[in-house]
Specification:
InterPro entries: CheY-like_superfamily, Sig_transdc_resp-reg_C-effctor, Sig_transdc_resp-reg_receiver, Tscrpt_reg_LuxR_C, WH-like_DNA-bd_sf. This protein is of the alpha/beta class. The protein is built from 9 helices and 8 strands. The protein has 2 domains: about 140 residues, Rossmann fold; about 60 residues, Arc Repressor Mutant, subunit A (Orthogonal Bundle), CATH 1.10.10.
């Protein structure tokens, strides 16, 4: 069993903010090791040396002209999607709209991918860290329009919608772990916009199937 401490990589160009983020992470994981990269190129070099359990990315970085740009971080994310498909990612920003050009790519990413607004309380940040480490997909509604389902998610959707299988039965049928099956169902709900529904009032599994039929993703 792997007993090494968790490794977090924080990409942030403001040293005080980066250090504060480290302190909050260590409240959640006291034994965690935090590494700080002050530029996207530095973060990429660190990834080549060791894969962290989670990378936390602030999208906007200062430029030589004094302005802020998201392009360096967007390019980093493209390289992560291509070279590190299982890496867990937390985007910590108040400008998530910059992610729209990457919608299709982030939809195919197999690691956790969570977007948390800097305008939220710190609890939302820590919840985002936890959910990203669990492999969940949590993104704002505005980013979901072009997101595709991958092959595994389509298999899960068919077993859930056409055969009404439980997560455990889906895991057994597909020869995957229960956690993987549960994550696939959660990601389906996120991609199809069902995760915003109140589960006290709505059966989200039924709503998921209804939305899949409406979009002609499955035929009953």
């Amino acid at each position: 069993m792997d007993s090494r401490p968790s490794l977090f990589l924080i990409l942030e160009d403001h040293p005080e903010v980066a250090q504060n983020n480290c302190l909050f992470l260590q409240k959640l994981h006291p034994e965690a090791i935090c590494e700080i990269a002050h530029a996207p190129a530095e973060a990429l070099e660190r990834l080549k040396l060791e894969i962290p359990d989670l990378i936390i990315v602030d999208l906007l970085f200062g430029t030589s002209t004094g302005e802020q740009s998201a392009q360096p971080c967007l390019e980093l994310l493209r390289q992560i999607f291509q070279g590190y498909p299982m890496l867990n990612i937390l985007i910590y920003t108040s400008e998530y709209r910059y992610l729209k050009p990457l919608s299709k790519l982030l939809g195919r990413h197999k690691g956790g991918f969570v977007v948390v607004s800097k305008l939220e309380r710190r609890k939302a940040y820590l919840d985002g860290v936890k959910h990203a480490l669990e492999g969940k997909l949590e993104i704002p509604r505005e980013l979901r329009h072009d997101i595709d389902l991958d092959e595994r998610e389509m298999q899960v959707l068919n077993l859930l919608g056409r055969e009404a299988l439980t997560d455990k039965a889906i895991a057994q049928r597909m020869n995957i772990s229960l956690k993987t099956a549960q994550n696939s169902v959660q990601r389906l709900k996120a991609k199809l916009g069902i995760d915003f529904l109140d589960e006290n009032d709505t059966s989200t599994r039924v709503a998921l199937c209804m939305e899949a039929v409406r979009r002609k993703l499955i035929v009953l």
